[in-house]
TrEMBL record:
The keyword Transferase applies. Keywords: Transferase. GO terms for molecular function: acyltransferase activity, transferring groups other than amino-acyl groups. It comes from Actinoplanes italicus. This is Acetyltransferase (GNAT) family protein. Transmembrane segments: none annotated. CDD domains: NAT_SF. Gene3D superfamilies: 3.40.630.30. Residues 114-252 form the N-acetyltransferase domain.
Amino acid sequence: MDLRIQRSVVSNLRNRPKAIESGPFVAGLDPETTNPFINYASPVPGVPITAADVADLVTAFTAAGRKPRLEYVVSCAPELENLLIAAGFTVEERNQYLICTPQTLSANPVPDGLTLAEPTTDPDRAAVVATQNEAFGGLADDRPEVAVARIRRTQERGGIVIGARTAAGEWVGGGQTSPPNDGLSEVAGIAVREPFRRRGLGGAITAEIARRFFERGGEIAWLEASGDDSWRVYERVGFVPAGNRLYISRQV
């Protein structure tokens, strides 16, 4: 499973607006934003990595005006962390990732008064993005129109975007998957506005995203939980721990 997840991550990075191949790494960059959670690299599984390769990757990030940053499945490059630390990188997070299959997925009821739908216009996409920015704090350099264009590209390439809205049409939550690759897709950006939390909406959004992904032929949905509360939400809808990922970066 680790290998499939890592290969899927690398393949999706190659489809970013500006993809850079640097030795054993693929960096997926977006010229429209300096958001470090959008601009990062990951190692190609099975390719040897040297200190010189790390130095070249730093140079590539610097030339692009981006913060050197990596996300990857630890077991697919066990020697990499020490090389990065020696090059001045600092660990941001160590996370377990969780997976869900059609067999483990559990339905989660949508709270009364709310419905789930895919945003199909840019104003609706912008409203879903706004719910995510409100929940996660957003980043000043990630302009709304840039985020909307990214969401639209995700949908055009087969990714799923789901928003929650009230009967009055107010969007109050959302989330999405990455475009599918090798039967896998990452679920990310699950967000609910504060007044609508603790009613099961986050779980309902997650379950609906996974259901639609499996309905379209997907095999494995995966994600990372940001804390105990979200971990419990994801486990209730059928996600189980499967491996470890590392987030690591270097100040420029």
